[in-house]
Amino acid sequence: MKCFERLVMHHIKSSLPSSLDPYQFAYRSNRSTDDAISTVLHSALTHLDKKDTYVRMLFVDFSSAFNTIIPQQLIHKLDSLGLSTSLCNWLLDFLTGRPQAVRVGSNTSSITTLNTGAPQGCVLSPLLFTLLTHDCTPEHTSNLFVKFADDTTVVGLISNNDESHYRSEVSRLASWCKHNNLSLNTDKTKEIVVDFRRTHTLHTPLSINGTAVERVSSTKFLGVHVTEDLSWSTNSASLARKANQRLYFLRKLRRAGTPTPIMTTFYRGAIESILTSCFTVWYGACTASCRRTLQRIVRAAEKIVGTSLPSLQDLYSSRLTRKALRLAGDPSHPLHSFFSLLPSGRRLRSLGARTSRLRDSPIHQAVRMLNSLPALPPIPILPTAHTLSSS
């Protein structure tokens, strides 16, 4: 059945228009969590580079998002996207009338027929959810909705202490969720206020459906710790703790006489993958002290394995270069416009910044990285990425 679902998924993708929300980063080719986080950070830092500004970030949590899909409502949206009637009818039949029972040991419950939600583990479920939420977009240009599947972040760019557009946007989001049978989990929804002004007023708490949203100084966003001062010490410390714990297993492998190539493979899969998680987002802006702490873990692994390993700086440079070329070659990407060639075609146009925070942001670092090369590599022109990937 999964093979057939993949065929249906590819058929859906080939039928989708180019007008899909570009800020949905999940299940799309040439998109990743790095891109979603970089988009949020660049929007926030660019706004904070201006005077008398601050940013409110709302990290929305849905309760059982995939289980609350109403098939008839989804089919109506798919029809509006131009999918054929026969395909819509097949999907409606696929999602409704699904028998389900629970078995515990030798005991089996009675069968219940489900007519809501998308099946767990289904190849089509993530794709269908992203299509259900494609029309969940901001009304005001001072707000941004960044989505990665069911992870939604509302970025409010506040100027002159005027939060009216941000608050109305959050109310509008709550109404949209109610209309689409999505339940906002206010208890798990968090808000961060980023305000670098020397004299800032007390920020009024945000409420959703009469319940106050908890304001926090740090939260985890797509696997990365984001703090109200937009520093990366908390994130670096968390990664260092995890990586240090994995060194124990690397030592066990050495004591067992494991060959060096196998230990190297283990290091890259279990330790380096942690140290470089969403690497291009935060490494360029973290402090020298944090970098030294993380690099010490690499050196410790080198002593255990008995061979040289790539330094974090080298990995960062190579990955940031690849990312910059990828963004520069994808006109459909929300960050593509920041990679503009000069008339000579040999360099990218530099991005202005008033503060070091913005200069150290991922996009500014990526542009500088390409411009620092002896010659600008050929920029690969990627196919339009409005369709969703199969991953």
UniProtKB/TrEMBL annotation:
Give start and end of each Reverse transcriptase domain.
1-213
Question: Which CDD domains does the record match to this protein?
Answer: RT_nLTR_like
Q: Which GO terms describe its molecular function?
A: 2-oxoglutarate-dependent dioxygenase activity; methyltransferase activity
Q: Which Pfam families does this one have?
A: ALKBH8_N (PF09004), RVT_1 (PF00078)
Q: InterPro entries per the record?
A: AlkB_hom8_N (IPR015095), DNA/RNA_pol_sf (IPR043502), RT_dom (IPR000477)
Q: Which PANTHER family match?
A: REVERSE TRANSCRIPTASE DOMAIN-CONTAINING PROTEIN
**Protein name, UniProt field:** Reverse transcriptase domain-containing protein
